[in-house]
Design brief:
heterodimer, A: mainly beta, four-stranded antiparallel sheet, 1 helix, B: mainly beta, seven-stranded mixed sheet, about 0% helix, about 50% strand
């Protein structure tokens, strides 16, 4: 899996939109970008996956520019319950679905009231 | 669907004893399961890959005789921490892959917090 770089931490307030950017300069042609969320003392949870442009689901949006060397996870109107660590992973679908995942340091998001 | 459970959710044991942690895929068959360890404020670190019916593959630096992994069925993998010491206290998380069935994600258990006194 390609190496990724994310901010160590971010702070926000309830109701704000939060954007977490991940850099992955060595992304390969077949690689997808996947984000996981981990609450304290819980296992990671899949949030969203994308290949290019924009992907949106009920939880978040994922923006991927044309060169795919970075991606941005967007959380609309965060609440206190969105306080968690967010991990960005890059790899082809076979890897992300079937092989061991390499987690970077992740981004620790703290949402304040 | 695609739920993974772990048991126990937390355990406290005395130094020198052994502890078994179970990881179960509740509604799918998991040909491969992965065991991770996570220390406070740190990321998940892969310990081993467990394939049903075969020996586990351990990451460098993980003692296979200390962390015994058994993947006896397509829905159950167990991790036994033998002769536990306080430095083994950590959060142990398993994940399961659907294997040949196409999937974008892996499914993680809720984790087991081990405290060795």
């Amino acid at each position: 899996l390609a190496k990724t770089t994310q901010p160590i931490s971010m702070d926000s307030y309830e109701g704000q939109e939060v954007n977490i950017t991940c850099s992955h300069n060595n992304i390969a042609t077949n690689d997808y970008i996947t984000w996981y969320q981990q609450f304290p003392s819980q296992g990671p949870r899949f949030i969203i996956q994308g290949y290019k442009t924009k992907v949106t689901n009920e939880v978040a949006s994922l923006f991927i520019p044309a060169d795919r060397k970075s991606s941005t996870l967007s959380l609309p109107r965060v609440s206190l319950s969105d306080t968690a660590v967010y991990y960005c992973l890059v790899g082809d679908k076979w890897d992300t679905g079937r092989r061991a995942l390499t987690f970077g340091s992740g981004t620790r998001l703290q949402v304040q009231p | 669907g695609a739920v993974v459970s772990q048991h126990p959710s937390w355990v406290i044991c005395k130094s020198g004893t052994s502890v078994k942690i179970e990881c179960r895929s509740l509604d799918f068959q998991a040909t491969t399961m992965f065991w991770y360890r996570q220390f406070p404020k740190q990321s998940l670190m892969l310990m081993a890959t467990s394939n049903e019916g075969s020996k586990a593959t351990y990451e460098q630096g993980v003692e296979k005789d200390k962390f015994l992994i058994n993947h006896a069925s397509l829905t159950l993998s167990t991790l036994t921490v033998t002769s536990a010491h306080p430095e083994d206290s950590s959060f142990y998380i398993c994940s399961a892959s659907k294997g040949a069935v196409a999937s974008d994600e892996q499914y993680f258990g809720p984790g087991t917090r081990l405290t060795v006194t």
